[in-house]
Amino acid sequence: MGSVTVPQTVADIDLHTKFAKAGLPDSPEAWLTRAKEVAQILARDATQRDIEGKSPVNEVQLLKASGLTKILGLRQYGGGGQDWSTAYKVIREVARGDGSIGMILGYHLFWFYTVNVVGTDEQKHRVQKLLLENNWFLGGAVNPRSADLKVTDDGDHIVFNGFKYFNTGGVVSDATVLEGVLDGTELHVFALVPTQQPGIQFSHDWDNIGLRLTESGSVKIDNVRAPWTDAWGWDSQTKQPIEAILKVPFASLLLPTIQLVFPNFYIGIALGALDAAKQWTTTKTRPWPYGGDNKDKATDEHYILARYGSFHAHLRAAEALADRAGEQLRDAYAEHGEKRDISARRRGEVAEWVASIKVVATDTGLRVVNGIFEVTGSSSTARKVGLDRFWRELRVHTLHDPVAYKERELGRFFLLDEVPEPTWYT
């Protein structure tokens, strides 16, 4: 893989040309190098972009140009041919530069992969070819805390209607994954539709304190149509789900897959916070002159050294656990993906590896993004410094679903040897 000169900001140079000359990375290590290059670009002006809160159009173009949006794609259609264990590390690295962009990359990759799990082989190849050849970025209107979209049968088409309070990345996406329940049944239907159409109406109401560049606001779905042939995992002739494809527990592997996206960008955000704090402490922080054991430099202060050492150790442990969980999920797909024959026990064990890192990344991440101010000093709280964005980003998404329920699941798993029942959050 060729090397890419890192520009000053997201929009400073023709990124398409630079990355196109380098080509797609050809190994897991090379993909991580590419992710680090992207993270460096994002980190240069992340604080200013967070303050401005503009829609991340340029940032999505950067992800596309770098090829990171293609990492899970089939090589035969121009994809990266990597598995989830590498993709999670890439998400983590990008979030280290900008948590918002790491998050929307993670969601895109999840929607990209969804057809592999709940679609037919024909749909998988057709959709991947479409996405890779057009270099599309994906959003998804599938938030389960909102009422299900209503899906109706209209001859050769299905029609989606409803409202979702959250729709991460949708405003800047080329296509959107919709999911709803077929009218008169309890059966769920997934389909991919173009984003730019009158029936997808964004509210542009994302105004939360953190993850300000994720475009995670609400959306109304008004008579959005898709051919029955695009209903993933359904027989378009009989208009019935194909049980061999949509059977649980394999199809429900989607839930730990997206749940593992979360702690990886949590860890990335915390690592980015530690990077920024290190830069400030080593260049700006002054030693405390009233402690009785005065030092010439802040970096000689015992409490500062000890606190950084603790942060570093705990984040290393979190990364190791995240990697182990990623390997578990990778192996589950590799061993059971072709026959879709995973047992409830195996699926549950994978889910509890994911629950473990969700708990650890939440606890460790919040401790780091809050604690960095104690080792940087009061001047580091200036808005222009931007250390607060790491806390705001992590605090917002760690509320996505209460981590206490993950702890309860793990308690039942450890004490009672019970694996969890699949839910939209487990």
UniProtKB/TrEMBL annotation:
Q: Which UniProt keywords apply?
A: Flavoprotein, Oxidoreductase
Q: Which residue ranges does the record assign to the Acyl-CoA dehydrogenase C-terminal domain?
A: 264-400
Q: Does the keyword Aminoacyl-tRNA synthetase apply?
A: no
Q: Name one GO molecular function term.
A: 3-methylbutanoyl-CoA dehydrogenase activity
Matching entries from InterPro entries are given as: Acyl-CoA_DH_C, Acyl-CoA_Oxase/DH_mid-dom_sf, AcylCo_DH-like_C, AcylCoA_DH/ox_N, AcylCoA_DH/ox_N_sf, AcylCoA_DH/oxidase_NM_dom_sf
**Highest rank taxon of the organism:** Eukaryota
Domain (Acyl-CoA dehydrogenase/oxidase N-terminal) spans 40-127
Q: Name one GO biological process term.
A: L-leucine catabolic process
**SUPFAM superfamilies assigned:** Acyl-CoA dehydrogenase C-terminal domain-like (SSF47203), Acyl-CoA dehydrogenase NM domain-like (SSF56645)
Q: What protein name is recorded for this chain?
A: Acyl-CoA dehydrogenase
